[in-house]
């Protein structure tokens, strides 16, 4: 089943649009609180297409991802009961329980790691608010974790340039499904 190739092509077309930075900012904001597609899929082709602006795109992605994370934090803090049926409907309820355990065990470190990792960051932002994590450490850890991730992605694209695009296109389907397996494997490991 080809899922990630068509998504990659769609996002690639968005990345060439004159309003692409706005789309990137919106996607980055939304992904940190409710949207399922990570902004990397737009950051990568934009950084490939305009390597001279790659660091600007990384900064934009980081800023709006952290702002979206604050929205996720506020959702968890004030609206968890209201959004709980949606969390259950999309199958995230068991993951939420795992997140609560991770927060109890690792605290701020879990935000740092989640910000950098391919795990669904939105679940961590909502859980941070729901568990009453202090907002300032949450923001600092988010800036460091998300920034490290997005600046790494943009730097690799800038460094690799156009010669990386055929590699990404060739392996996008495998990389996408590998990402899904890693996320579900981690969650299954924590649930067991």
From TrEMBL:
Sorted alphabetically, the Gene Ontology cellular component annotations on this record are: plasma membrane
Q: Which InterPro entries match?
A: DedA_domain, VTT_dom
Annotated TM spans: 57-80, 100-121, 133-154, 174-191
Q: Name one Pfam family in it.
A: VTT_dom
Keywords from UniProt, A to Z, are: Lipoprotein, Membrane, Transmembrane, Transmembrane helix
**Transmembrane keyword on record:** yes
VTT domain location: 54-156
Name recorded for this polypeptide:
Lipoprotein B
């Amino acid at each position: 089943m080809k899922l990630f190739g068509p998504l990659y092509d769609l996002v690639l077309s968005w990345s060439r649009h004159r309003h692409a930075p706005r789309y990137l900012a919106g996607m980055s904001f939304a992904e940190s609180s409710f949207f399922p597609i990570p902004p990397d899929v737009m950051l990568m082709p934009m950084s490939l297409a305009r390597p001279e602006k790659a660091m600007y795109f990384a900064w934009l992605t980081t800023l709006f991802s952290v702002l979206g994370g604050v929205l996720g934090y506020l959702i968890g803090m004030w609206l968890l009961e209201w959004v709980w049926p949606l969390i259950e409907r999309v199958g995230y309820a068991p993951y939420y329980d795992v997140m609560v355990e991770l927060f109890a065990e690792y605290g701020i470190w879990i935000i740092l790691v989640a910000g950098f990792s391919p795990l669904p960051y939105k679940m961590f932002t909502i859980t941070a608010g729901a568990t009453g994590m202090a907002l300032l450490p949450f923001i600092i850890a988010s800036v460091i974790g998300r920034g490290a991730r997005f600046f790494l992605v943009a730097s690799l694209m800038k460094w690799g340039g156009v010669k990386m695009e055929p590699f990404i296109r060739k392996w996008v389907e495998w990389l996408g499904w590998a990402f899904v397996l890693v996320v579900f494997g981690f969650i299954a490991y924590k649930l067991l």
